[in-house]
Amino acid sequence: MMEYRGYHADIKYSDEDHLFIGQVIGINDALGFHGSSVQELESMFHQSIDNYLLLCEQLGKKPEREYRGQFNVRIPPELHRAAVIRARERNMTLNEFVTTAIEDECGQPMVL
Predict the structure, then answer these.
(1) Considering only Cβ atoms within 10 Å of each terminal Cβ, which end of the chain, N or C, has fewer?
(2) Domain count across the chain
(3) Could you tell me the residue range of the domain that residue 101 belongs to?
C-alpha cells in the first residue's frame, strides 16, 4: 500500500502487462495509475493525486477524503438485537459499542 497527501492506494502486479497497477482506495472517484517500476509507480501515484486535487479546485468541487467515518453494515437481525442489548447493558450507544469492537479487533484506540 502507498500513501501520499492523506490518500492511500492498493497496489497489484499484472503478470500479463508486466506493470504495477495502483488504485486509490477510500473514495468514490476512480483514480488509477500504473508503472513499470516502483519509482515510476510512486511518481504516477503522486501525479494522479496532484491532478485530482487540481481538477477539483478548477471545478469548484470539494475533493473527496478517504474514510469519512461512516459506513453501512448489514448483519442478521438477531445479531443487531444482541448488539443493541449488550450496548445498553454497558450504557453505550450502538455506535460506541461497534467502535469499541472494531478497536479491539484492530488494536487502535479511538481518536477524538
Answers:
(1) C
(2) 2
(3) 77-106
- Rounded CA separation 60/66 (Å): 19
Same domain, residue pair 26 and 54:
yes
Write out pLDDT tens, residues 57-98. Answer: 999 999 998 777 778 889 999 999 999 999 999 999 998 999
Taking alpha carbons only, the member of 59, 71, 64 closest to residue 7 is: 64
Q: Is 111 among the domain residues? A: no
pTM over 0.85: no
Cα dihedral 79/74/71/10 (nearest 10):
110
% of the chain at pLDDT higher than 70: 96
